# Entry
Amino acid sequence: MTVSLFSRLRTEQGQANPFPLYAELRSKGEVIAAPWGGHIVTSYELCDQILRSRNWLEPDADWRERQGTGTRWGAPSSREMSKTLPALNPPEHTRVRRSAGMFDRGTLKQLRAPVSHITRRLLDSLAERLQDGEADFHALVSEELPVATIGHWLKLPTADFPRLRALTHDQVFTQELLPSASQLALSDAATAELRVYFTDLVHERRRQPGDDPVSRWITVWDTLESDRDRADEAVYLLALFVLLAGLETTSTLLSTATLLLLEHPRQWDRLAVQPDLVPAAVEEALRYDPPTHVISRVAAKDCVLGGVEVREDEMAHLMVAAAHRDPAKHEDPELFNLHRKPAHLAFSGGIHYCLGAPLARLEAQTLLHQLVTRFPRLALARRPSWAPRVAFRRLLNLDVTLI
# Structure
């Protein structure tokens, strides 16, 4: 039965509304056996507990190596991802996270005006396209705002944005729950191209440093590493991490939040007259349908989880999107409610809480503020299509019109 559930989840139809399938999973218990090995966790309490516990680790490079070269963990893209910040465990995680120094109050203050300007420009394009009757909001706005924001911050050429966005779409397959061989091949190729791009960027900024994060990271890592090649490798991995973390999930958040509000017109109308509710709308969208539906961790030692024995090195797949609708955590969890007290795991938790969360919130809040003001009569033209992925949500389109 669990095999059948995941088979359905991995289809476009299943992704159009995966939540009834998640309810079936929750009905089987807080912790159930994964058909491919490891455990599936569905309750909010246990997911939250694992994310905050030092007894649960990221599947880091050493763990992936122990799985063998013939597994998905031995793929070149997987090995490369194991070097980036999200896949590190202490003490290396602590050192790299401290070196990043990103998205503090000062950085967010500097980005507020550019994000607002980029958003206005994209909504100008949306308005122009809507004159013809319909427009794809996802392609015109949600896909463009994150890459333009990260590109502005890293000072990347705007001509590179389309290619970086496309590479990110392919690269994320290696982070999926059950990637196919063909998907891993796409991810491997994209990862190799991204390595060349960002390695060249680091070398260029070393030759001509400027007022940008990459140049600052070079300065920081020159004090942490005596070997220049190792310092440059660390900076490359930070730049790669920022791109991958800042594009895919934020793009999904922007479209999903917009979609949910358009599906709940009373909430949309309320935002138009009460824009101070925009932050609450973003948080509820993150709970109701988060960009990341699955987070995986590895047991650091033998333990008992929800009454189930777990062995050291075994993996637990946290079904956070299912946990967000756990009735033990939220009253009326199927209700999209802007007045709900925020509580979600969309940005993970504990030491791995997402460094980019403040920027994602800034982009989403800026977009919704401008959107409900400029387009109070925006409506769905038709139901969107979804990519057949499980861990990382991705809309393929979001066609809108004016009524």
About this structure: The longest strand covers residues 295-299.
